[in-house]
């Protein structure tokens, strides 16, 4: 008979703390929003009508209002905003991958003594607040910012370029903000790559580029997927970067949610917009999980 | 197919300088890993580089594969100087110690990997891979991934992959290193059978002398980046050129002594323990210091102390271990040193010598060998 492995007594506590944290600060707010998205404001206008109530005749009444969802689906602007946000998130992910992969690759190839220093350099910006780091880009991209001053000085342009509040400045900010989330999982994957496999490939006649495409890239698939998810998911709902660097020409769910919540004060619709965004994000997470489960089963 | 393969192997033989290693040297910073070694390997020969870790055998193998560039010297394969060729341009394939199978590819694709790089047509690749799977008897496993195979099966995939391109030279890095003992013995013979069938020239790196002796036509014993001796397994075992080789290959008793009689067909050497009458002549002069090597299995034991003029010592049984097929004794001599003796257990009912019993150990003149170096 199989004996249960010995488990340390503090186990439930250690697991319980983060679970409790996630319950209070993630699941509970989520459920509250879910409820709001289906209900109307009550008569007083402060709270919301309950979804489930007992009527006097001993009937349980469940009342779900779908009007917020219907209005979101009927108005093109929401659909366009979702598409635009997902599109920009995909572009961000792609750019982060294209820039981050070589970075992570050379990091993993560098001398072991050098790696902690290089990792430190990637992590260092995290010590300054996110908002300030994004704000700093304004000083670089402004009409009389550093970049324009340099271009003028070098004689490349005659008058300052309009860089701020364009797709360019938006993408610069997004890639800058999210690239560490791409590099770190890629690095931790690439650093484990068995160099003997590359030698075996060389031995069998693969040139350096073929070794990269046929061995390194397929074996770092998990790192690519993990990094892409870590970038894509928060990028869809990003609010600060489009607000500070993107300007109004860029359609963005994050800002739309903010507007619905705090400017239009239409919480029911805001909640519905949020729920639909969560659905959009859940899909790739679900795909990734399924992929990982398959991988784990294959390894068993 | 067997016959044609054998014929091919026969025809292939006779090119004595098929692989030529000329004064190869490899230095890392201050360390000399391989120190001016030269070697010629015949076509179709299975050659073993034998030595303990750090002796330079792996570095030499990696230079043959092209993973390391020699500091000095030349490597010539089939008349072509390959010293400066990158690994992917050499007609050489290697079977890695850890097999280094591509975990993301099936058995089929692992074997086909090298063929695809050659740009071989698809149909031909399929045919060749089938052939290889047949050879290593893994046909039903073509669609599996490496992690779904046992260690022995993985090893055979690695072999098939390294044979698929029909290299001029096959390199085996500790081919049995990851297998357990029983499987290892069977696989060694199987592997040699396959190599002979294909008629390949092959260099094996191993630290396991039994493996080298089972598989190789010739062995080079390496130490500190140099070849100490090159020869057939029996040459290296029965005629070790120096103390290190004698001690490294198998078990041995070594005696220091002085040459007292030197005739063309025999010689006599006086050691602290006894007079050795050795059945071969030596190149040397009387009074010179020599070493006599005597293998434990070439010594016989008799009960009691008997006085013999030469090739015998008296002692008491100090240790005994029963190994099944033989019994290993340690006989303590009057001088205090211990003599290793093994006795084959030919009789199921034979009583072993008890500890503390007085015995005489003796041997034939053809048993010991003199090491001049």
From TrEMBL, chain A:
Cross-referenced InterPro entries: MetI-like, MetI-like_sf
PANTHER family: INNER MEMBRANE ABC TRANSPORTER PERMEASE PROTEIN YDCU-RELATED-RELATED, PUTRESCINE TRANSPORT SYSTEM PERMEASE PROTEIN POTH
GO cellular component: plasma membrane
Cellular compartments annotated: Cell membrane
GO BP of this protein: transmembrane transport
Key words of the record: Cell membrane, Membrane, Transmembrane, Transmembrane helix, Transport
Main subcellular location: membrane
Protein name: ABC-type spermidine/putrescine transport system, permease component I
PROSITE patterns: ABC_TM1
CDD domains hit by this protein: TM_PBP2
Family in the record: Belongs to the binding-protein-dependent transport system permease family. CysTW subfamily.
Domain ABC transmembrane type-1: 82-288
Organism: Tepidiphilus thermophilus
Keyword Transport set for record: yes
Lineage of producing organism: Bacteria, Pseudomonadati, Pseudomonadota, Hydrogenophilia, Hydrogenophilales
Membrane topology: Multi-pass membrane protein
Residues that span the membrane, as ranges: 12-34, 79-105, 117-136, 168-191, 212-233, 270-288
């Amino acid at each position: 008979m199989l004996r249960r492995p010995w488990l340390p007594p503090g186990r439930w506590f250690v697991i319980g703390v983060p679970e409790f944290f996630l319950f209070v600060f993630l699941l509970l707010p989520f459920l509250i929003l879910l409820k709001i998205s289906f209900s109307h404001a009550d008569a007083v206008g402060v709270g919301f009508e309950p979804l489930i109530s007992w009527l006097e005749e001993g009937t349980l009444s469940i009342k779900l209002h779908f009007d917020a969802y219907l209005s979101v689906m009927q108005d093109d602007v929401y659909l366009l905003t979702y598409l635009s946000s997902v599109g920009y998130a995909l572009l961000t992910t792609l750019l982060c991958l294209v820039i981050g992969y070589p970075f992570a690759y050379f990091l993993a190839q560098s001398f072991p003594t050098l790696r902690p220093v290089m990792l430190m350099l990637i992590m260092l910006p995290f010590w300054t607040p996110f908002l300030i780091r994004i704000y700093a880009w304004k000083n670089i991209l402004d009409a009389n910012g550093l970049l324009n001053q340099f271009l003028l000085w070098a004689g490349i342009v005659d008058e300052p370029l309009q860089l701020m509040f364009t797709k360019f400045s938006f993408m610069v900010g997004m890639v800058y903000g999210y690239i560490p989330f791409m590099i770190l999982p890629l690095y931790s994957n690439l650093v484990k790559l068995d160099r003997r496999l590359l030698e075996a490939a060389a031995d069998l006649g693969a040139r350096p580029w073929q070794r990269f495409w046929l061995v390194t890239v397929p074996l770092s698939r998990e790192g690519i997927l993990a990094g892409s998810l870590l970038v894509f998911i928060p990028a869809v709902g990003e609010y600060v970067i489009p607000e500070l660097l993107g300007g109004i020409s860029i359609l963005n769910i994050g800002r739309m949610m903010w507007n619905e919540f705090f400017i239009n004060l239409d919480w029911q619709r805001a909640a519905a917009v949020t729920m639909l965004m969560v659905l959009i994000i859940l899909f790739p997470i679900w795909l990734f999980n399924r992929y990982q489960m398959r991988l784990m089963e294959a390894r068993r | 197919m067997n016959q044609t393969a054998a014929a091919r192997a026969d025809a292939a033989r006779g090119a004595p300088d098929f692989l030529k290693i000329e004064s190869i040297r490899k230095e890392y910073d201050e360390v000399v890993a391989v120190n001016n070694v030269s070697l010629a390997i015949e076509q179709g020969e299975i050659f073993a580089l034998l030595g303990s870790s750090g002796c330079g055998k792996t570095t030499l193998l990696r230079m043959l594969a092209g993973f390391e560039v020699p500091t000095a010297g030349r490597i010539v394969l089939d008349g072509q100087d390959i010293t400066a060729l990158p690994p992917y341009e050499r007609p050489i394939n290697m079977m890695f110690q850890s097999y280094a199978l591509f975990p993301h590819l099936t058995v089929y694709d692992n074997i086909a990997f090298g063929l695809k790089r050659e740009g071989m047509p698809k149909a031909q690749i399929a045919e060749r891979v089938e052939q290889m799977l047949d050879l290593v008897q893994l046909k039903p496993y073509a669609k599996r991934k490496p992690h779904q195979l046992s260690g022995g099966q993985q090893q055979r995939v690695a072999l098939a992959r390294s044979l698929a391109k029909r290299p001029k030279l096959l390199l085996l890095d500790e081919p049995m290193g990851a297998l357990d003992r029983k499987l290892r013995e069977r696989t060694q013979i199987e592997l040699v059978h396959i190599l002979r069938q294909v008629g390949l020239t092959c260099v094996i790196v191993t630290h396991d002398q039994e493996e080298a002796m089972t598989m190789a036509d010739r062995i080079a014993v390496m130490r500190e980046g140099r070849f100490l001796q090159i020869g057939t397994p029996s040459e290296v075992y029965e005629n070790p050129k120096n103390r290190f080789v004698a001690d490294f290959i198998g078990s041995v008793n070594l005696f220091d002594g002085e040459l007292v009689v030197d005739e063309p067909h025999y010689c006599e050497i006086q050691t602290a323990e006894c007079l050795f009458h050795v059945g071969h002549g030596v190149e040397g002069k009387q009074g010179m210091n020599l070493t006599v090597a005597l293998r434990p299995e070439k010594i016989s034991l008799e009960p009691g102390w008997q006085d013999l003029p030469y090739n015998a010592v008296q002692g008491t049984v100090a240790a005994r271990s029963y190994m099944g097929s033989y019994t290993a004794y340690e006989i303590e001599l009057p001088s205090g040193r211990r003599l290793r003796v093994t006795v084959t257990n030919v009789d199921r009912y034979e009583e072993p010598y008890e500890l503390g019993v007085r015995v005489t150990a003796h041997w034939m003149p053809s048993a010991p060998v003199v090491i001049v170096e």
